[in-house]
Amino acid sequence: MPNVKPLIEKLEANQILSKEEFYTLLTEISDQDLLYLRERASTIARKNFGNRIYTRGLIEFSNHCKNDCYYCGIRRSNKNVPRYRLSEEEILHCADTGYTLGFRTFVLQGGEDAYYSDDMIVTIIKSIKKKYPDCAITLSIGEKSYESYQRFYEAGADRYLLRHETANEEHYQKLHPPTLSLKNRKQCLWDLKEIGFQVGAGIMIGSPHQTETNLVEDLLFIKELSPHMVGIGPFIPHHQTPFAKETTGSLRQTLLLLSIIRLMFPSVLLPATTALGTIHPEGREMGILSGANVVMPNLSPTTVRKKYELYDNKICTGDEAAECRYCLEGRLNRIGYQLVVDRGDYKPFPNLSMSDKK
Ligand code: 5AD
Ligand code: FES
After folding, report:
1. What is the mean pLDDT of residues 80-88?
2. Closest Cα to atom 4, ligand 2: which residue?
3. pLDDT at residue 354, as a whole number
4. Atom of ligand 1 at shortest distance to CA of 241?
5. Which of 140, 202, 251, 286 has the highest count of CB atoms within 10 angstroms of its CB?
């Protein structure tokens, strides 16, 4: 086994690794060095955020989707999903519940559903902002035009999540139908950034056909984009998709990537995802202890939760918003962390090199 400690130290000193060095780190790290790396990553997170974990209330407002991504349970071709849409009133009701529970960020997530025109999205953003001006709004509604993004931003949306899924062209084509392109995906991310959103990119760990070289390319792309948030979780097969028989992404590799990202981006907002909590009962806790600093419990009405199954066995589909909120708080407390009531905006920390600034 090569000694990867110098590579970890290099990352900590805010130096970028070469492709070969990243590859070595990803493929050759021993269990013992992984523990060391995770410890370094959580130390950096604690230095920057203390024991404070930001929380976002996730509102999954539509499971209609015009896309047909091979990995996703709510893809258009899946005829077995009962489809639903929340009305503006229902979305606001979720926000009310969330606000009472202490959430100061709402994430509006949905499939790419043309039913919601730009005007409707703008109205929804404005109503939430009017009622709760102290809250941040994050959108996660896929690829749109520059003009649409601009309108959402002007209406008051603060952040936008759009995982790039993979930075490798061929790999992208293996995960998506020909109607979708990596080029457009990346363009959307650059547009969002230019407009002024706090932007989140990200990937699934262990998605079908993903190689370690692809992961290196992802890290280099993320470095180039320098997003404010990075969403990563394991790939989990959904039984009604073309990837039904594929293997679940590993816990070990997900934690490894979380820690590398924390080292590369000391101030980035990094969630311990629901998918991570799905592959292991303490997955999210382990994510926090590997450098993650955000949790995103579900605020969607329990009546629709089961219908937003992007992958099999998704946790929390039977729980009320309050149950998830207090469950997560308990989980965090048990590992020495605190769930905070705060918008939790991206703040570049002092003493960082230019590459980590906004
Ligand atoms: N397993 C894990 N994550 C998934 N996503 C979609 N399908 C799956 C799956 N089967 C992730 C994608 C998407 C985000 C909303 O959920 O990365 O960007
Ligand atoms: Fe939903 Fe634990 S977070 S029940």
Report:
1. 98
2. 324
3. 44
4. 10
5. 202
Could you tell me if the CB of 310 is within 6 A of ligand 1? yes
Record: fold of 16-342: TIM Barrel (3.20.20)
Nearest partner of 35 among 2, 8, 11, judged by Cα: 8
Strands (E), 93-168: 105-110, 136-140, 159-161
Tens digit of pLDDT for each residue in 262-279?
Answer: 999 999 999 999 999 999
Domain boundaries, the chain: 16-342
Task: Please list the residues that pair with 339 across neighbouring strands.
Answer: 53
Question: Rounded to an integer, what is the distance from CA 168 to the centroid of its chain?
Answer: 19
| Ligand 2, CB cutoff 6 Å, lining residues | 297, 316, 319, 323-324, 327-328
240: Cα separation from own chain's centroid: 23
One-letter amino acid identity for 25? L
Q: pLDDT tens digit string along 39-70? A: 999 999 999 999 999 999 999 999 999 999 99
User: Using CA of residue 300, residue 305, residue 308, residue 313, what is the dihedral sign?
Assistant: positive
Max distance between CA atoms of the chain, in angstroms, equals 58
What's the 332 CA to ligand 2 centre distance in angstroms? 12
Edge-to-edge strands, sheet with 198-205: 57-62, 105-110, 136-140, 159-161, 198-205, 229-234
| 91-139 pLDDT, tens digit each | 999 999 999 999 999 999 999 999 999 999 999 999 999 999 999 999 9
pTM of the model: 0.96
